[in-house]
TrEMBL record:
<dbReference type="GO" id="GO:0008270">
    <property type="term" value="F:zinc ion binding"/>
</dbReference>
<feature type="compositionally biased region" description="Polar residues">
    <location>
        <begin position="1"/>
        <end position="18"/>
    </location>
</feature>
<protein>
    <recommendedName>
        <fullName>C2H2-type domain-containing protein</fullName>
    </recommendedName>
</protein>
<keyword id="KW-0862">Zinc</keyword>
<feature type="region of interest" description="Disordered">
    <location>
        <begin position="1"/>
        <end position="20"/>
    </location>
</feature>
<keyword id="KW-0863">Zinc-finger</keyword>
<feature type="domain" description="C2H2-type">
    <location>
        <begin position="27"/>
        <end position="56"/>
    </location>
</feature>
<keyword id="KW-0479">Metal-binding</keyword>
<dbReference type="InterPro" id="IPR036236">
    <property type="entry name" value="Znf_C2H2_sf"/>
</dbReference>
<feature type="domain" description="C2H2-type">
    <location>
        <begin position="57"/>
        <end position="86"/>
    </location>
</feature>
<dbReference type="InterPro" id="IPR013087">
    <property type="entry name" value="Znf_C2H2_type"/>
</dbReference>
Length: 116
C-alpha cells in the first residue's frame, strides 16, 4: 500500500468571492397577463382582489356556475337549462330577465312602430 499520491491541490485563492444570489421566491400574479410579482402570499391575495369582478351572478337554475354579467347568466340559463326568457322586446327582439331591465334597455331597433 504505497500509493502515496501527492495530489497538489491547486489552492485557488479566491476565497469569499462567491456571489451569493439571494433568490427570494417571488410570487407572481395568478393572472398571467398581469405579470406583477409579490413578496408574500398575503400581498398577492390582496392584489388578486382587483382581478375579481365585484358582483357575481350565480345560476338560478340549480348548477354552481357564476357569471360576471347578468346577461351571461341569462344566456347560460337559457342554453343549459332551457329557461324561458320572460321579457322579450318586441322591437329589437332581445330578451330580458325582468321587465325593468327590458324597459331600461336602449333599444337599438327603434323602428317606426309608433304606438299611440
Ligand atoms: Zn395581477
Ligand atoms: Zn346553470
Ligand atoms: Zn328593444
Amino acid at each position: 500500500m504505497d500509493s502515496n499520491l501527492t495530489s497538489r491541490s491547486a489552492t485557488n485563492s479566491d476565497n469569499g468571492r462567491q456571489t451569493v444570489v439571494r433568490r427570494k421566491r417571488r410570487l407572481s400574479c395568478l393572472d398571467f397577463s398581469c405579470g406583477r410579482t409579490f413578496m408574500s402570499e398575503y400581498t398577492r391575495s390582496l392584489h388578486m382582489r382587483t382581478h375579481q369582478p365585484k358582483t357575481r351572478y350565480p345560476c338560478q337554475m340549480g348548477c354552481s356556475e357564476t357569471f360576471s354579467r347578468q346577461h351571461d347568466r341569462l344566456r347560460h340559463e337559457v342554453a343549459k337549462h332551457g329557461k324561458q326568457w320572460e321579457w322579450p322586446c318586441t322591437r329589437c327582439r332581445q330578451f330580458f330577465s325582468s321587465q325593468a331591465t327590458r324597459d331600461r334597455h336602449k333599444c337599438s331597433n327603434r323602428a317606426s312602430s309608433s304606438l299611440g
